[in-house]
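Quick question, first post here. What does this chain look like in 3D?
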Amino acid sequence: MKRNSERKLITFDWAMKRLLRSRANFEILEGFLSELLNEDIVILELLESESNKENFVDKYNRVDLKVKNNSGEIIIIEIQHEREYDYLQRMLYGTSRAITEHLNAGDKFSALVKVISVNILYFDLGQGSDYIYRGATSFTGIHNHDKLQLNRRQQQLYGKEQIDKLFPEYHLIRINNFNDVATNSLDEWIYFLKNEEIKDDFKAKGIQKAKKAFSVMNMTEKDRLAYDRYQYELSYQASIVESNYGLGRLEGREEGREEGREEGREEGMAKGMEQGEKRKALDVAFKMKQMGMALEEIMAITGLTREEIETA
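> Answer (accepted):
Ran it through. Tokens below.
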């Protein structure tokens, strides 16, 4: 990804924090989602929740949208842009939270709406050669290997023909795997996400409007300062992860050498890495307190106890 002074467009994650929350810019997100899901998407509203409150911590960068597709179905779409080692679990937590947050008390479970999780990954997650992955739920017989289907009454009740349409759907965009060759309209969006550049001949839905809206030159001085601060925070968080992970490995090796045995070395490395992760969490918690974040939010993000955060 380009990170130099010649960059002309702001990053997509910053746009989600500021620009794309405005109804005037919904057309941009609608274009991106329509290309990704291969159907016309119309945003009905931005769903405000605790998870949508602005702060500078990248792992809390999430946007929930209530949208309607070209079949008239109402869908909750969650967009996340994070850098975490436990990201798959965070993904599951995010969809579960989106489901429970938007089910009214007393509603039947059949009233649950579809949740689609769109995840823009700027780090390596798992192993695979593709740059876009889709995950859905299906049930396969262990003896006959057939796919379980909804019967006619269930289809009428749910308004869906397939079981996978009831469960959360996940889209993983692995930016680092994209080869910078845009062969279709969705690739044009992926090209922008990776390079922060939109070419004049790109024709994907909403992308030329994004080129105008995301221009650094159009930012006010106040927004530019906030954007610079945000970029600094990203670098700061990355440095914490790198430095503490490296320190943990070093301490593990030293303790392992003192033990003089392979078993002791492995145990020492594990202990050192654990200590490094704890130091990283404490550093992040301290920074979050300085930023005025609520104690409950810090606990949820870092996994630390109330006492650990208060003394950080």
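The chain is about 45% helix and 10% strand.
The chain has two domains: 12-217, 221-310.
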